[in-house]
Amino acid sequence: MDQSNASQPSRGAGLLLVAAIFALALNLRPAMAAVGPLLDLIEAATGMDSTTASLLTTLPVAMIGVGALSIRPLRRRLGERKGILLGAVLIGLSCLARAIFDGTAGLIASAVVVGIGVALIQALAPVVIKRAFPTRFGTVMGVYTTGIMGGAAVAAATAAGWAEAVGWA
After folding, report:
1. pTM for the full model?
2. What is the pLDDT at residue 169?
3. Side-chain half-sphere exposure of 163, counting CA atoms within 13 A
4. How far is CA 115 from CA 76, 92, 97, 169, in A?
5. pLDDT tens sequence across 103-130
6. In a domain? residue 92
7. Rounded to an integer, what distance in angstroms lies between the CA atom of residue 2 and that of residue 14?
8. Quick check: is 42 in a domain?
9. Distance from CA of residue 43 to its chain's centroid?
10. Is residue 6 in some structural domain?
11. What is the CATH number of the domain that holds 30?
């Protein structure tokens, strides 16, 4: 067996890992992308003004930037797998918090936590992909990026319909 294939997963394990990477990527943008189409409803339901409501889309992106700057110590402390798991848990918990704490403070706090969760995953996932697929890095990164953009597109396209179907409040 040549050295270039020694660290790559078997075909079945590799396909499963690519599927997991894609599923993870699908969940990196919906908590952010679904907010924009609902801003008018959010403002009306919470009494937020436009400036405060804009924080719901701005803070996650800011946290992603801050997270990218601080990822090296977090990577050393947590490792890639635990860091990605923590990021996924933070995203899930922040989405759950939005259902429970639907006032201004809860929504703002959840926006920050979503951004931190996404930052963890976005900084660490390429490291995992590069390690698992050294000869297919570009292809698997393409799958990962497609998942991110697909999750954002689906969330933005369906947010208003879902809000209407289930009742905004």
Report:
1. 0.87
2. 55
3. 18
4. 20, 12, 14, 23
5. 899 999 999 999 999 999 999 999 999 9
6. yes
7. 18
8. yes
9. 24
10. no
11. 1.20.1250.20
Q: What is the pLDDT of residues 141-167, one digit of tens each?
A: 999 999 999 999 999 999 999 988 887
Q: Is the dihedral of CA 20, 152, 65, 42 positive or negative?
A: negative
Structure tokens at 98: 């939005």
**Overall domain count for the chain:** 1
Token pair listed for 143? 């799958």
d(CA 164, CA 169): 10
